[in-house]
Amino acid sequence: MFRRALPAGLLSLVIALALVPYMWPQPALRQSLTELGSTLLAYAAVVGFLSFLEAHFHRVGARAEGWPYSLVTALTALAFLLLSLAEGGLRGNGLAGPWTGWLYQYGLLPLEASVGALLPFFMVLALWRLLRIRRSAYVLFFIAGVLTTLVLHSGGTLLPTLFGSFYETFLSPLATGGIRGILIGVAIGVVVMMMRAFLWIDRPLGR
Amino acid sequence: MKSCPICGAPNPDDGMICEQCGASLVLVPKAEGGILCPVCGYRNPSGTIFCEQCGARLESEAMPGAEGPSGEEVLETAEVELDWVATLEEFFPEIPSEVQPSGPAAAPAEAGREEEIAAPPPVEAEGLLSTEAPPVSWERLEEESAPPLPESAPWMPSGEEIPLTFEPERSPEGVPAPPFEGIPPEIAEPWPLTESLEEEPESFPFPGVSPVQEEEERPPFPWLETSGEVPETSPEVSLLETAPFIEWPPELDMETSAPSQVAETKETEAAPPPESGMGEIPEWLRGWEGVEKPSEEAIPEVPYGLFEAGELGERPLTALEIPAEEELLAQASALLVPEEPPAEAPPAPAEVPPFTDLEAVLAEMPEWLQTLQPVPEEEGQAPSEAIPALEPAVMETQGPLAGLVDVLPLNLRLAEIHGPAARLQSEPATELRTRAQAWQSLLGQGLNFLFGEQVAEPVPAGLGAALERWLLFALLAGALILGLYWPLPFFQPALLTPPGDFLARLDQVPPGGIALVAVDYGPDRAAELEIYLHRILERLTARGVRVLTVSLSPWGAAQAALAVQARPDYGEQVVHLGYYPGQEVGVVRLLTRPLSQLGVDYRGQPLSGLPVARDFKEDPLAARLGLVVLITGSPDALRGWIQQARGVLPSEVPLVAAVGANLAPYVAPYRESGQLHAVAIGLRDALLLDGPAPEGSPAFFDLQAQTILQLFIIGLIGVGLVIRLFRSLRAPGL
Lengths: 207, 734
Hints:
A: 6 helices; 0% strand; B: Rossmann fold
């Protein structure tokens, strides 16, 4: 019981302290909590990276399916990390050193751009094949949304002027309302999760 | 397709083994008789001790409810005799068996009927054929015409009446041979195969084997040879210790004298019996040397059974004459007489050094054996891996192993079910099954009850699919190239309006003020958003505004570094703070941090020495900012910046965003709520930041290419809908 109560109690205390500045402005307290949160996030990033390496090296050691890709991924990540540490420690340039910048500019940028350039072709092909479904309401809804977006943003033609008023009158409220509902739902979910953690309801604290 | 009798999985008709559970699809008895296995439900032939499917021990009695798997197709199997009686009958078909085979009922055969023996060797049944034996018949796999069997056996004296009782042969001297004293004088020839066949060579059952000459008298089996040397054994070796696996009952009925009748074999020329009444002692009995030969009265007159090679009768026994198994057991047990200590102590064996030097023994012991030494357990602590309790002794009650204890102890692993569990015998009622299926079909339809069942065409494969794919790619590439190099008449850039509100907010920052530009996009959005970064920097620095660029992601920091590192006014009007960790927390931390504590730029250069930070003091950054610009293509970054910055920034500080086209619906709520003062969306607004695009300019062709592609996709959707409509009209049922 004590082993579960201690971390649960700490969590509740931190949540309460984080809420205090919003009700009782205390810059020093807020700054301290912000620094603590930043430190925890940095620690989480380190742990996440180590977990990433462990997962891929485990696949390599177990000779799981696709282990060569895991080996390349893990070694590349390690190489980048060591290169950035060396550049930041030896040259003092941090992440913006010439070596890291060169790898980013001539390695990562071309790869990402290539993948991004291929994406429209395959999306069009998927859309064309989607039309082969003989009868489906979902396909019709999807096509209607795509058509609306394309028509309204096909600048330089008369199409937006033809359908602009229709969009502003009927479709824009629906789209905006939908996005607002998503944002409100996300915010409520965050608040509920916070309350559950504060009141020791959420697992594994509650059970 | 046929179903597996164990798991019910469908299998090909010619399959031998179930593809699901590995059960045999061939050896499934068709008849309802037999023993039902309590573990897997497999029906085993009668007399089987262990289940043929899973290896579990079967009960001696037939399981109740002898019903096979319901609703399953029973496979047609080959009727193979599997019990030991049938196997014996294959070798000695003339001997009628007490246990009837589990197959079809054995119909009585005609007297003297020759029957084919399916198992090798093709014994012609000469030796055991009895003219007076009751007819025995059982179905064989294939009843083909068998070669005719000789009418009489070679060892059978013609014309003699076959006695019903066993009588030892008289000795040549005329003295009645002593009654059987347990161990026959000759057991070297258990099989009647070594009989001299000179009289009737054609009747030799094994044509391919040359008959043994009389002079040789060579036993057929090497283990029966007696070398004449008796190894010395300890006089204290008891009967039970020497018996390797047989546990005879302690009380032997020595006076059991049930007249037993054994199947006669061929008459052999037995050697004259020794003086003591016991002939050459076989090797496996040599250890009993010194045993006092029992008196003639003590040892009853018992035959040696089927394997007797000594004093045998002159005719084979019939089925009725074969003694019961219990009698055989008792008679066989009478053969083994417990040894009595000799009168004189035998000579002491060779001196063996006493086992006192344990260390010396352990030194000689290999390491792997030393690790097996038992470790004394502490009191009150149970071993970590407790040895399971031994199963109680199981005495066999049937078959040739009857009376033996723990011959084949139950192996726990045999109880494990190898493979999927047996199917449940109970199945839902038909009515319930139909109702469940109806519910399942209704729930699986979804909205199909409104729009009908949707049947998707299979994705075309092969050359047609490849041509279709490449045609689409070619049309798309053609539209792109067309829009990039040829001005089209229907494209009118004048219809495009630049983002006025956004530009107005950029122009509201006073000269010398500080603007914070958050760069949070990666290489995938660089083609669309990098134009914003360059043009915003140009517009702000042209008016004397100091710009601080920062990113919450490493790739955004790299993108900003590529844009600012080559600027000549870097350090004077523009400075890149690099990657700021912490995501949303980093936003608050950055905005509430004093300017003097910003530290260094992305290259590690201290800010205090740069002209851009000439008036950076202890006031927080949020208090000195005149504008915050968000350049991002990620909804999470957009939400994080707006939610965190809006809580820290003063209300008079405007917050504007330049986002990709994918974030157009996401920025609408923030725009309408006033959290975002201005928004620029997509490549179109980016190209119009400097005003309308003149015809022939790169911005003109970029806008035209984008429009052409959008129109091409609109046309593609239209063509697809037309084709779909045409197909539905041509085939209304589709």
